[in-house]
Design goal:
There is one protein chain. This protein is of the alpha+beta class. Helix content is 59%, strand content 17%. The chain has eleven helices and ten strands. It has helices at 2-46, 50-58, 60-75, 83-119, 128-158, 161-172, 174-184, 186-201, 241-246, 273-285, 318-339; strands spanning 209-212, 215-222, 226-231, 236-240, 250-251, 259-267, 290-302, 307-315, 349-351, 359-361. It starts with a helix and ends in a 6-residue tail after the last strand.
């Protein structure tokens, strides 16, 4: 009994020393993280820079785990653990270090994205080149993040001898497995290839205005497998990437955001076309949505009862073109009602009187 008491301090020492090293390493790493980011915060308050602000915002949480594990990995030999417990501890530390490092790399991609988005602003009026870049950036970002996670997972699994043996065995049947996976994931792989094609040939880009399946909307998101279209009434239309490779669709902002808008008016044959044309030019010339490129009125068709007048006006983008079309339509109809009511569409008919020839009776004289 006394021997067990005499051995107690030695046993405590064997347990307390590794525990003290582990706890001390974790605390030291956390203090190191706080010190680094405190300096960043102080620098941001004195001289705000996007890089340091983005680093502080995105890398704060990963660093709170990465630095303690990093310090522990250096201090692990000082624990003086036996071979088997030390090997288990080393594997845990290595796995944690890989996970936190991969997390930090993923957040570093967000920092790079912030820098690019600040340099190239999507909200500008003429943003065609920027939308091209952002479309590629979104796809490349998703690809890089996927590769980081895949490589980190592979490194963690391959650090275990059992998994390495399984992996070696799987490599021998890789040909058969690839064929099976290819058939099973045919649609997913085709979507992935379509994503590469869309990202670099760019039939559509982020914020492009599309007409798809009879719906008008803007491209809100492009993922590995689908495109999200934000419809004008705030619905979302989700379409697979293959759709935009295999089927036709309208892209109203493919090369420029400028657009022509049409307004059709149907009037009587007695309409004074020149007066209507001058009024259109006068009204559009004073409208803020007109971009001063095109303002034309033409007689585009003559039907059996009406003339078809087409007002063609231009605007800087599709939204302005739609609003300008509505304004022109309302004003021109009001103008014809107030100044040329005789030019409104009429229905003329021939009334046959008994024992008399046919007589043309204007509509306004019939009861």
């Amino acid at each position: 009994m006394l021997e067990s008491f005499s051995d107690l301090p030695e046993q405590l020492r064997l347990w307390l020393q590794p525990l003290a090293v582990i706890v001390g390493s974790l605390v030291t790493g956390r203090l190191l993280k706080y010190a680094i980011f405190a300096l960043l915060d102080a620098y941001n308050r004195r001289e705000p820079i996007l890089l340091t602000q983005s680093v502080a915002r995105h890398l704060s949480h990963p660093s709170a785990w990465f630095f303690p594990v990093l310090v522990l990995s250096f201090m692990l030999p000082l624990t003086y653990l036996e071979a088997r417990p030390l090997e288990v501890m080393r594997r845990l530390v290595e796995t944690s270090l890989l996970i936190t490092f991969a997390w930090g790399l993923v957040k570093t991609v967000d920092v790079i994205q912030d820098l690019v988005e600040d340099h190239y602003r999507l909200g500008e009026a003429d943003n065609l080149r920027v939308r091209k870049l952002f479309t590629q950036l979104q796809f490349v970002k998703k690809l890089v993040v996927t590769l980081i996670i895949f490589v980190a997972t592979a490194l963690i699994l391959m650090s275990f001898a059992t998994v390495r043996k399984i992996g070696t065995g799987l490599l021998t049947s890789a040909g058969i497995a690839s064929v099976i996976v290819g058939f099973a994931a045919q649609r997913s792989i085709s979507n992935l290839l379509a994503g590469f094609q869309i990202a670099f040939t760019q039939p559509l880009r982020l914020d492009d205005v599309l007409v798809v399946e009879g719906e008008w909307g803007r491209v809100e998101e492009i993922t590995f497998t689908y495109v999200v279209l934000r419809i004008w009434d705030e619905r979302r239309l989700v379409l697979p990437l293959n759709y935009f490779i295999e089927k036709p669709f309208q892209n109203w902002t493919r090369s420029t955001a400028q657009l022509l808008g049409t307004v059709f008016l149907y009037t009587d044959y007695t309409v004074p076309v020149d007066a209507i044309r001058k009024e259109l030019e006068r009204y559009v010339n004073g409208h803020t949505l007109w971009d001063r490129r095109v303002c034309v009125l033409q007689v585009t068709d003559s039907k059996e009862r009406t003339l078809e007048l087409r007002c063609l006006v231009s605007a800087a983008n599709s939204s302005n073109a739609f609003d300008l079309r509505c304004a022109v339509r309302e004003h021109m109809v009001t103008f014809i009602q107030q100044h040329h009511p005789e030019a409104l569409p009429k229905t003329r008919s021939l009334v046959e009187a008994k024992d008399q020839p046919f007589t043309l009776v204007p509509e306004d004289q019939t009861s």
